[in-house]
Amino acid sequence: MPLPRPLADVLWAVQFRFNNRFRRRLTVLKCDTTGRAAGAPDAVAGGVTVVGYGPDEALPADVTSGLAGRFGMDFPAVQRAEAAEGATLWVGSIPGEHGGEPLGFARTRPGDRAPGWHEALGPDDRLVYAMATHRAARGRGISTAILRAALAAAPPGGAAWADTMVWNAPALAVLRRVGFVDLYEADPLPDHPD
Questions:
Q1: What is the CATH number of the domain that holds 126?
Q2: Angstrom distance (rounded) from CA 65 to CA 46
Q3: Which of 26, 108, 110, 131 is buried deepest, with most CB atoms within 10 A?
Q4: Residue 17, domain member (yes or no)
């Protein structure tokens, strides 16, 4: 029998804090982007609409307020800082549901704009980071659609890279689903972009 939603949320928060403090290891993953991902940016996949906003594009006000409301009021300031570092923001929503507001996002950044990462990345590589889906919309394929769109937009010949905490089973599952493979475990980086 599943736990009531408020209790499940509290349990998740406790587990997150415990794991983040005492199980601080990352899984580093890689995906060969050429021919690996189906779909295209700014496309509808499985009912999920995904739009990519490049570093020079302003976010529409409704997208900004929707992301701030669901993922934290500091989202606009964080997004401006990330865009200044060359990040593209990928936003997923389901038209006709939740008022059409953003339900998930991920960021990608060119590899040469991610110095000091676990691996030396080149300009055609993409670092995937800061992936999140609103709790009420999990299990609907939002993160999968977002990642497929981001991978489809990556330059051919490069690779996509990601890392996530070893205990973050949902993130690991979606990364593996779109073609990422585990390479090794590592300690967290001091200036980790996510």
A1: 3.40.630.30
A2: 25
A3: 108
A4: no
Residue 30 in any domain: the answer is: yes
Contact partners, residue 25, CB within 8 Å, separation at least 6: 165, 166, 185, 186, 187, 188
Could you tell me if residue 1 is inside a domain? no
| Contact indicator for 90, 106 with CB cutoff of 8 Å | yes
Domain that holds residue 128: 24-186
Tokens 């038209």, located at residue: 95
Contact predicate 142/90, CB 8 Å: no
Q: Which parts of the chain sit beneath pLDDT 50? A: 35-42, 194
Summarize pLDDT for 23-69 with one digit per residue, the tens.
678 899 999 875 444 444 445 567 899 999 999 999 999 999 999 99
Give the phi and the psi of residue 101 in degrees, each rounded to 5.
-70, 160
CA dihedral sign of residues 63, 69, 74, 78: negative
